[in-house]
Amino acid sequence: MYFRDIFGLEEVKRTLIHAVEHNHVAHAQLFAGEEGSANLALALAFARYIHCENKGEYDSCGECASCSKMDKLVHPDLHFVMPVSSTTKISKPLSQDFLKEWRDFALNQPYNTITDWLALIGAESKTPSISAEESRKIVFYFPQNWLPSPILRRMS
């Protein structure tokens, strides 16, 4: 995914590019919005731009070794943790159990929803989660009043 592939959001794209140009990229980014929006596409375009070895003024080059790896979402500095659910084949799933499917989904359907993702993997439950084991690996900070209390209770 490239910035040029994302319709609109010009101000957001300029802000992200400006952050990279001025070496002012936060250690974590949260791309939030409604399901089916450009959140995943924008996050993938931003990750590509950060890792691109020959950045252009408005987008990644698409030709360097990093861009080639991003074409397949296999860049060694790109890690995914996605919500998953048990299936008929996997009773205690981790994100890594579905990495191949996630890469295909993210590359080919970046505007789809979590419901589409669950259908693709054959989830038995419509309430996916990130395992406690995987959530410990995610370093983040949210002010206590920012997240709804049920989420805070699950995180503790």
CATH architecture of the largest domain: 3-Layer(aba) Sandwich
Supply the number of helical segments.
Answer: 7
Beta-sheet strand percentage? under 5%
- Return the CATH class of the largest domain: Alpha Beta
Overall pLDDT confidence = 83
Question: Please, how many domains?
Answer: 2
Query: CATH superfamily of the largest domain, called what?
Result: P-loop containing nucleotide triphosphate hydrolases
Rounded to the nearest angstrom, the distance between the terminal CA atoms is 35 Å
| Sheet with most strands | none
Order of helices and strands: HHHHHHH
Low-confidence stretches: 140-156
Give the CA-based shape. elongated
Question: CATH topology of the largest domain, which one?
Answer: Rossmann fold
The tally of strands reads 0
- State Rg: 17 Å
* Helix vs. strand class: mainly alpha
Helix content: 25-40%
Could you write a compact summary of the structure shown?
With 156 residues, the protein is an all-alpha fold. Helices cover 39% and strands 0% of the residues. It has helices spanning 10-21, 39-51, 65-71, 99-108, 114-121, 132-135, 149-155.
Task: From the structure above, extract its key features.
0% strand; mainly alpha; 2 domains; 156 residues
